């Protein structure tokens, strides 16, 4: 008998085959065996609590094992729930390490601070909310915040936290460099990779201990969910202890991802690679065009735009040595421009038809934000641009007519 005629795909054979498949395939089929029902699309589970086994001999304190389906073994949605667990399963296959999800990106960073409880955090520019969490923790633990220009002072147990690409400019930082500093000093390195989601970069490959993503941005991608993700480096000797501690502390901090958000996240992961690749290409295209126009003082762009920043425009002499290696499939779909005056920056979003004037980023809609609206520490001339999935030529025309309208 042909042995292939008796072969049946099982959860075990699928789990062994998936790691060798492409990202787009893993995103769509990573949870094929994560549910007992036969629906292709994930079901929406909204239950808060789950019935225990009716047979008293099968009751185990702290557990609720379902012998007929080990993927349907839940107690209380603050611990874990079907949508969130299935979301984490697919994310693990995409992000390269054990994953735990949270209600927001800031909740995920707060979890890092509680887990590591550092005495000092070395951090540069980036999302102002992360700095606010450190300030909050300082009230409780006395943690000190130092700059990345003070890395010569790093000691064992300290935390180096970098964001790359950086908010709001989309510029990249060398993860391998900061990893070397952390290892040499016995410190930890955490990387906020929200602006560099798969397939753009994997900070674990360059030495990050924990990677943070705000799932509200590219992982969600549709302006309709909030969430946070932590990924732990699997080669880390204390990985299992960290994961167990993160789960235990999430239980009491009450910041698990919601049922709806877990379901929406699953929906979004199916198209993550397609969306991010397209958005990255659009951003690089527009950034190059604006950069070239700025250098022409007679152009309408050059008459109102002072400067632009994006990873694709970084000129540091070692770009080939680390930047292309770190982000081989493209750069952040976000960049920043500085207008010549604050008033121009304030007015410009109102001149646009396609770009929506709103905060956040990573969505299918292209967004522009006069950044002073949500971060008062920013230069009032700065505009953050997040590229969506619209046609790149339409976006260019929209920006150009906006620049002309200012004149």
Give the terminus-to-terminus CA distance: 79 Å
Succession of helices and strands: HHHEHEHEEHEEEHHHHEHEHEEEH
Q: Describe the sheet with the most strands.
A: 7 strands, mixed
Overall mean pLDDT stands at 92
Strand order, main sheet: write it out.
1-7-6-5-4-2-3
Regarding quaternary structure, how should these chains be classified?
A: single chain
Given helix and strand content, the structural type is alpha/beta
Low-confidence stretches: none
Proportion of helical residues = 25-40%
Instruction: Specify the number of helices.
Output: 13
CATH topology of the largest domain: Aspartate Aminotransferase, domain 2
Strand content: 5-15%
Query: Based on DSSP secondary structure assignment, what is the total number of beta strands?
Result: 12
Protein name: Cystathionine beta-lyase
Keywords: Pyridoxal phosphate
Pfam families: Cys_Met_Meta_PP
Cofactor: pyridoxal 5'-phosphate
List keywords for this structure.
36% helix, five-stranded mixed β-sheet, Aspartate Aminotransferase, domain 1, 407 residues, 2 domains, carbon-sulfur lyase activity, seven-stranded mixed β-sheet, single chain, alpha/beta
């Amino acid at each position: 008998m042909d042995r292939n005629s008796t072969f049946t795909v099982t959860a075990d054979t699928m789990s062994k085959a998936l790691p060798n498949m492409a990202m787009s395939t893993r995103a769509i089929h990573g949870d094929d065996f994560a549910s007992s029902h036969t629906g292709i699309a994930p079901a929406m589970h909204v239950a808060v609590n789950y019935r225990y086994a009716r047979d008293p001999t099968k009751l185990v304190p702290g557990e609720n094992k379902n012998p007929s389906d080990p993927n349907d073994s839940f107690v209380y949605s603050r611990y874990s729930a079907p949508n969130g667990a299935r979301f984490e399963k697919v994310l693990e296959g995409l992000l390269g390490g054990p994953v735990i999800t949270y209600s927001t990106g800031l909740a995920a960073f707060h979890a890092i601070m509680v887990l590591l409880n550092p005495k000092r955090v070395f951090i540069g520019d980036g999302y102002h909310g992360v700095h606010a969490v450190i300030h909050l923790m300082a009230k409780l633990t006395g943690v000190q915040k130092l700059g990345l220009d003070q890395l010569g002072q790093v000691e064992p147990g300290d935390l180096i936290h970098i964001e790359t690409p950086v908010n709001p400019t989309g510029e990249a930082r060398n993860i391998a460099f900061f990893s070397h500093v952390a290892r040499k000093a016995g410190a930890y390195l955490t990387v906020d990779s929200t602006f560099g989601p798969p397939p753009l970069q994997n900070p674990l490959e360059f030495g990050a201990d924990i990677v943070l993503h705000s799932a509200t941005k590219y992982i969600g991608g549709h302006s309709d969910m909030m969430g946070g993700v932590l990924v732990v480096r699997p080669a880390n000797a204390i990985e299992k202890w960290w994961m167990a501690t993160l789960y235990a502390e999430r239980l009491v901090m009450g910041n698990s991802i919601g049922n709806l958000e877990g379901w929406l996240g699953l929906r979004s992961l199916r198209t993550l690679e397609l969306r991010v690749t397209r958005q990255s290409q659009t951003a690089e295209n527009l950034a190059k065009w604006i950069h070239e126009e700025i250098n022409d003082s007679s152009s309408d762009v050059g008459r109102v735009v002072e400067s632009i920043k994006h990873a694709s425009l970084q000129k540091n002499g070692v770009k080939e040595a680390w930047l292309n290696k770190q982000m081989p499939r493209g750069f952040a779909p976000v960049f920043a421009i500085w207008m010549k005056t604050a008033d121009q920056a304030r007015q410009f979003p109102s001149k646009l038809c396609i770009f929506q004037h709103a905060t956040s980023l990573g969505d299918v809609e292209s967004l522009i934000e006069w950044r002073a609206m949500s971060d008062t520490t920013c230069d009032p001339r700065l505009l953050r641009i997040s590229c969506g999935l619209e046609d790149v030529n339409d976006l260019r025309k929209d920006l150009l007519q906006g620049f002309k309208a200012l004149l």
